[in-house]
């Protein structure tokens, strides 16, 4: 939890610092949705994921985006076990317009995944690297506010705690800064 607080504080400071120099090109928002593990184990439940995201538009089609998402999965079985996964993602985003008011985008990049496994007397944490591929759509609600749907497939490298990839499906509300 301490790592999540530090990461959130740093992300907010970076967003605020960037707002001073290039306010027209920055965007940020919140996201909420589902996170699924792709393994075949039936004992790990799906989780509600939430987080923040922000980006800098290099031009109309290309932007750089950072994303921080966290979710806690319950593990069925004897005892009280859960695994918390916090994802910190960064990569380019390519956007195209479909019609007048719908933007479609694709993104890919690197991820750092903080895993925290807790079982009644056993506690383990790990940090893994990975890649993600994503796609989504967004449309304006009103001037400066967008709503959208974001899908990402996360590939974790050499994970010891869970032998699985991740899928996130998130609803986003974003603001132009």
Provide keyphrases for this structure.
mainly beta; 8-stranded antiparallel barrel; 1 helix
Unreliable runs, pLDDT <50, ≥5 residues? none
- Side by side, the strands of the main sheet go 1-2-3-4-5-6-7-8
Structural class: mainly beta
Q: Work out the helix count.
A: 1
Structural features, described:
This protein has 177 residues and is mostly beta strands. It is built from one helix and eight strands; from the N terminus they run αββββββββ. The chain is elongated and about 55 Å long. The mean pLDDT is 85.
List the helices and strands and how they pair.
Layout: H1 2-21, E1 26-37, E2 47-57, E3 62-75, E4 81-98, E5 102-119, E6 122-142, E7 145-156, E8 166-176
Antiparallel strand pairs: 1-2, 1-8, 2-3, 3-4, 4-5, 5-6, 6-7, 7-8
What is the compact description of this entry?
Helices cover 11% and strands 66% of the residues. It contains 1 helix and 8 strands; from the N terminus they run H-E-E-E-E-E-E-E-E. The protein has an 8-stranded antiparallel beta barrel.
């Amino acid at each position: 939890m301490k790592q999540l607080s530090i990461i959130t504080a740093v992300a907010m400071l970076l967003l605020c610092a960037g707002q001073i120099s290039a306010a027209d090109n920055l965007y940020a928002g919140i996201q909420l949705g589902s996170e699924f593990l792709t393994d075949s184990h039936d004992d790990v439940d799906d989780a509600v994921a939430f987080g923040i995201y922000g980006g800098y538009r290099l031009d109309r089609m290309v932007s750089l985006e950072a994303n921080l998402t966290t979710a806690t999965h319950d593990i069925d079985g004897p005892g009280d076990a859960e695994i918390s996964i916090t994802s910190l993602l960064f990569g380019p985003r390519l956007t195209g317009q479909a019609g007048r008011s719908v933007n479609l985008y694709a993104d890919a990049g690197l991820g750092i995944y903080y895993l925290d496994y807790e079982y009644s007397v056993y506690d383990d944490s790990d940090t893994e690297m990975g890649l993600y591929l994503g796609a989504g759509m967004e449309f304006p609600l009103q001037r400066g506010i967008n709503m959208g749907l974001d899908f990402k497939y996360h590939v974790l490298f050499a994970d010891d705690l869970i032998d699985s990839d991740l899928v996130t499906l998130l609803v986003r509300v974003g603001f132009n800064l």
